[in-house]
From TrEMBL:
UniProt signal peptide: 1-17
Name this protein carries in UniProt: Uncharacterized protein
Species this protein is from: Pseudomonas reidholzensis
Keyword entries, A-Z: Signal
Keyword Signal: yes
Length: 156
């Protein structure tokens, strides 16, 4: 029972304190995260699915064919007041030159994240071998942070 006490205390801290899993944030070199976050969505991933799709619009000439690679993550919310129910990852084959910003849709309770196609294998490896978390933080200055991360992993 003792092992659960620190976790319970961390969950009950007000949002003004450091966000859960703040130890996984990179250094704030540009001082964008000086204030406490105004919102946090933290999800522990329990299930995932991968969709590789293609579509063809037959009413256009020449006929454009587009393909997409998406991953849907589902899990359990961990942060206080979190309403997130799923995360939709879209992979961009353009090498990530200009990825869309992370967006949380409160109606559907879906966080949309975009990653370069090169990250697909890394994410699949993490899903297969580690406990994976999704974190989404918003700040009053308009800064948004989103990530996928593991917990602390012991070397073998």
């Amino acid at each position: 029972m003792r092992a659960f006490i620190p976790l319970l205390l961390a969950v009950s801290l007000p949002l003004a304190a450091a966000p859960l899993h703040s130890q996984f944030l990179p250094p704030d070199d540009q001082s964008l995260r000086q204030e406490a976050p105004t919102g946090q969505q933290l999800l522990q991933v329990t299930d995932y699915s991968v969709v590789v799709g293609t579509q063809r619009q037959s009413d256009q000439q020449p006929i454009p064919i587009t393909a997409s690679l998406q991953m849907r993550l589902k899990g359990k919310p961990l942060s206080k007041g979190a309403t997130i129910s799923q995360v939709l990852l879209t992979f961009d084959g353009e090498g990530g030159k200009s990825l869309k910003k992370p967006v949380y849709d409160e109606k559907t309770r879906t966080l949309a994240l975009n990653y370069p196609l090169a990250d697909y294998r890394v994410i699949m490896d993490l899903l297969r071998n580690e406990t994976l978390y999704v974190q989404f933080l918003t700040y009053a200055n308009g800064h948004i942070w989103a990530d996928l991360h593991t917990g602390t992993v012991r070397t073998r």
